[in-house]
Amino acid sequence: MERPLREKLLAICEESNRLFAAMSTQEIASDPAAYRDVAKKHKSISALVRGFREYEKNETQLASVQALLREETDAEMRALADDERLQLEAALANGVESLKVLLIPRDPNDEKNTIVEIRAGTGGDEAALFASDLYRAYSRYAETKGWKIEVLSSHETGLRGYKEIVFKVTGDSVYSQLKYEGGVHRVQRVPETEASGRIHTSAVTVAVLPEAEEVEVHIDPNDLVIDVYRSSGPGGQSVNTTDSAVRVTHKPTGLVVTCQDEKSQHKNKAKAIVVLRARLYAMAQEEEAAKRSETRKSQVSTGDRSAKIRTYNYPENRVTDHRIKLTIHRLEQAMEGEFQDLIDGLIAADRAAMLAEA
Questions:
Q1: Which residues make Cβ contacts (< 8 Å) with residue 168, sequence separation at least 6?
Q2: What is the pLDDT of residues 80-118, one digit of tens each?
Q3: Mean pLDDT throughout 174-201?
Q4: Residue 192: pLDDT band with limits 50, 70, 90
Q5: What pLDDT shows up at residue 157?
Q6: Nearest alpha-carbon partner for 95 in 43, 53, 61, 65
Q7: Taking 70 as the threshold, does the pLDDT of residue 305 lie above it?
Q8: Mean pLDDT in residue range 251-267
Q9: pLDDT tens digits, residue range 314-333?
Q10: SS3 letters for the chain?
Q11: Hey, CA dihedral for 101, 107, 108, 109, is it positive or negative?
């Protein structure tokens, strides 16, 4: 192990001991908020401490085996000791890599619930149909993860498509998995409405936003313009008979959020505020990152809506992620929500880039 890495890990172990001792002091133990803060910090480095202690244990065992090999003359005993030496050396090499991964700073948003926005781009009705297909794929994927999906806003077309659909995904570590989905998704296929059988290329844009809590983004009610109107487009009973649709305009930024899916004006307003808060949070994060010139410009997780990130080619039964040049020939399964291998590839590439920089 390189000396700088060892020194860093030793310092983390000392910090862990200090935090553990602090939790036993009267000052911290009598203050629930302070205790939670210290306990959270202690827990956040516990995996690193365990990993380093395991590494040190293997180091000690390897030193003993090497000493045995220098002194042992029995051939059978030497062979057994040599096998153990190889196993320990492999464990140490793997341990170093695991510790480096644990040292990568975690995205503070990884544990958050997520707002996903899908919008039809170039391609007219075909793009709207693919927006619907992509929403269905994400819904199926969420089912496999045990996540819950709630539609916050949608604008349907007459052909079972969506001009736009915004939904919230709730569950464990949602953002850590979905944050790589932001960008332009391109589809190549023969549209249902195409009589000549020609392949068309269409696109949808996807935005992935971590859900923001009220304490993270304060919205002044005086900064909002609330308009109500009658819902339009396909819908259920009473959808066009009451002024239940809501348009929320945030005056300082000009952001506009509309919601008409609920029959209740108050429910539509509440959902619109959830989306607005997530957009404001994302804007603040982007501005903060832009101010730090040293911030890593990841080609994997930028979430740039103008960047073509993936192509779904139906005639060739393939899905290609252009950021990591990964192609899978299981398009039908992917559109049923089976695209964990794509997400795993993106996570691995992002992690490798951060390790290389470190």
A1: 113, 114, 115, 116, 149, 150, 152, 211, 274
A2: 999 999 999 999 999 998 898 888 877 888 888 999 999
A3: 87
A4: confident
A5: 87
A6: 53
A7: no
A8: 87
A9: 999 999 999 999 999 999 99
A10: CCHHHHHHHHHHHHHHHHHHHHCCCHHHHCCHHHHHHHHHHHHHCHHHHHHHHHHHHHHHHHHHHHHHHHHCCCHHHHHHHHHHHHHHHHHHHHHHHHHHHHHCCCCCCCCCCEEEEEEECCCCHHHHHHHHHHHHHHHHHHHHHCCEEEEEEEEECCCCCEEEEEEEEECCCHHHHHHHHCEEEEEEECCCCCCCCCCEEEEEEEEEEECCCCCCCCCCHHHEEEEEECCCCCCCCCCCCCCCEEEEEECCCCEEEEECCCCCHHHHHHHHHHHHHHHHHHHHHHHHHHHCCCCCCCCCCCCCCCCEEEEEECCCCEEEECCCCEEECCHHHHCCCCCHHHHHHHHHHHHHHHHHHC
A11: negative
pTM tops 0.85, yes or no:
no
Name residue, tokens 């709207």.
128
